[in-house]
Design the sequence.
């Protein structure tokens, strides 16, 4: 076996660079004030209307629309101040080498401003009432600086796990992801600070469900089939998606996504592949346009003769979701249109585990190897 | 620093022993039949009524009530057959070295029985309609054999993560949990197959929230404070609880539980410490009666002067839960009664992150070290 050569080395911005970029953003405002101008931020709009499907690059990305957040506009001044406040908290954390969570940032920034209104009454106002407000500001700063919160040392839940013939380096340690026994490597909130040194694998298998990941890991599917095994536990978080993207981009590994055969599973596949609407500004770093859907496909229900009593009736929500998917440009391939139409017609779904009807070994010894060797995936 | 010596070596049953125990259970039924007796299983009752608080051992455990599951009783015959079916699936998996998930077992066992009723009509019946049915049978087999499903090689979701100066061995690999960089070791579904070789730590810090775990890991709190860091991500799963228990039992490490200051957080602490009602038959292996609650305590809101706007109003559900906790014998200590009564009186809760109001470093550089060194925990 030939080890995969790295195609492209990835370098996350250093914390010095992060500090520089955050300071530069602050300096823009300072400069405006020093020149006697009205201070404002110019922020790429993160709304659905400014999300576009880039058919050449096959990802969802943010359009070019920008908004002005003006300190002297009544509607915008609070948000302007929130932006300055959050920027200062982020900078403080980086300068003092702290790793706050997004919730820590919410609390640290939360305080009460007392003021006297135009009728002389004492009033109070919170800097923010809800974490949604502070999270939105974090996202604004991400799009303005082009630096992900992960690069800024901001922490959040991390769901992903990975195993396989991969050697990474983190904080100076060389970690061999094939020597973790029954356990796995929990992907940290910022996988860009991991260096992927060596990969000795033929493909990456991304599994929707954690229990299936555990099973395939326990039986060392990844060793037998020479692959890297990853799970994002349902709807994947940013770290898992970033890890998948890096393995595709830096090592040219084919990526196969295994999900349940239902609208939610199809959607999860599309989030790995094309990005999500709510995080479209990050697709350029998180989406993996070459990812392939390996199943479970709607046609598999019939081709693999899934017993009738393993088939579940699709819910109204499933059908509504499937109709939406049908109209998305990133599901416009002939193969996907066929799957979705069949799903809507038969109104039937199954789970990955339904394949166990053919025996516990069926999934890992036949279904997956067969689909990969004969190229029966869907794009 | 002196490495912790192992007090007690733990040995999980080997797969040979598991097969023997499962076969022995089947043989009981065969013997009954061969002797011309009516076949039956004798199953410890897993209901709330048979759950008792063992005040000496300070855990919730199953009482001695047993039920007879009789093949020739109309009410019991289906469950009897389900038990034999599940037992055969578990045995097959072990004999063939497979690692099915509980959902795989549900599907593999699911089939339609066709029969003709007393009026000559063709009828059908499913072996089970719902995974709750098959899961209950798995639990029955666990209590009858005294072998946990994990020992039987049955897989399920695993949420836990661990880092620290701990060396484990799994599948022949020696894994150093202090050399994982920004990542962590994802605890496998069956931590009993891990051998804990060495521990060089003074205590175990169990964190409710994953994001806090990630933060403390990134800043290497565990290295600075010489501890083992674990998270079970909210309500802990069996594997995380088992891992905590093993560190307490085998290495005599003090265990500190850090949760939000609300009824859910207090309950999570009690699950680690005393066990849960629904899994009381496993408390003997999963509960850690010496675990201590390190916070966030209700009194901390006032002692640490948490700013007013960080305090959240307790919901009706919080208050109802707190009233229940007040009456549980495992919350009967003076210290806990004081906390719960204050909670009910003030109707105020806070999150761990609220401590960030005193700066990002407050939790890890002051709150935790101070509480541990001055013994300000709650039992």
Sequence:
């Amino acid at each position: 076996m030939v080890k995969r050569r790295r195609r492209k080395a990835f370098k996350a911005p250093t914390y010095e660079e992060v500090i520089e970029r955050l300071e530069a953003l602050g300096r823009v405002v300072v400069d405006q004030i020093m020149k006697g101008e009205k201070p404002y931020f110019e922020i790429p709009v993160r709304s659905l209307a400014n999300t576009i499907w880039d058919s050449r690059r096959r990802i969802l990305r943010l359009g070019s629309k920008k908004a002005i957040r003006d300190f002297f506009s009544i509607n915008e001044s609070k948000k302007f101040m929130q932006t300055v406040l959050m920027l200062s908290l982020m900078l403080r954390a980086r300068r003092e080498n702290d790793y706050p969570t997004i919730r820590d940032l919410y609390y640290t920034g939360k305080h009460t401003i007392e003021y006297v209104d135009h009728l002389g009454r004492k009033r109070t106002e919170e800097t923010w009432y809800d974490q949604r407000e502070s999270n939105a500001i974090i996202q604004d700063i991400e799009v303005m600086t082009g630096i992900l919160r992960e690069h800024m040392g901001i922490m959040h839940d991390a769901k992903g796990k990975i195993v396989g013939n991969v050697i990474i380096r983190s904080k100076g340690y060389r970690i061999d992801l094939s020597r973790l026994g029954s356990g796995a490597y929990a992907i940290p909130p910022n996988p860009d600070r991991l260096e992927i040194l060596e990969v000795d694998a033929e493909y990456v298998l991304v599994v929707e469900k954690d229990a299936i990941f555990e099973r395939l890991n326990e039986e060392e599917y990844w060793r037998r089939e020479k692959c890297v095994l990853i799970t994002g536990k349902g709807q994947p978080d940013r770290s898992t998606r970033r890890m998948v993207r890096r393995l595709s981009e830096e090592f040219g590994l084919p990526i196969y996504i295994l999900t349940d055969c239902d609208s939610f599973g199809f959607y999860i596949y599309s989030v790995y592949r094309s990005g999500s609407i709510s995080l479209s500004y990050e697709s350029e770093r998180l989406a993996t346009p070459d990812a392939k859907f390996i199943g479970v496909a709607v046609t598999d229900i019939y081709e693999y003769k899934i017993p009738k009593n393993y088939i579940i009736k699709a819910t109204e929500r499933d059908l509504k979701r499937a109709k939406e998917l049908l109209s998305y440009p990133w599901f416009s391939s002939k193969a996907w249109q066929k799957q979705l139409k069949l799903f809507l017609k038969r109104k039937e779904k199954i789970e990955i585990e339904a394949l166990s009807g053919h025996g516990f070994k069926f999934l890992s010894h036949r279904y997956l190897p067969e689909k990969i060797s004969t190229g029966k995936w869907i794009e």
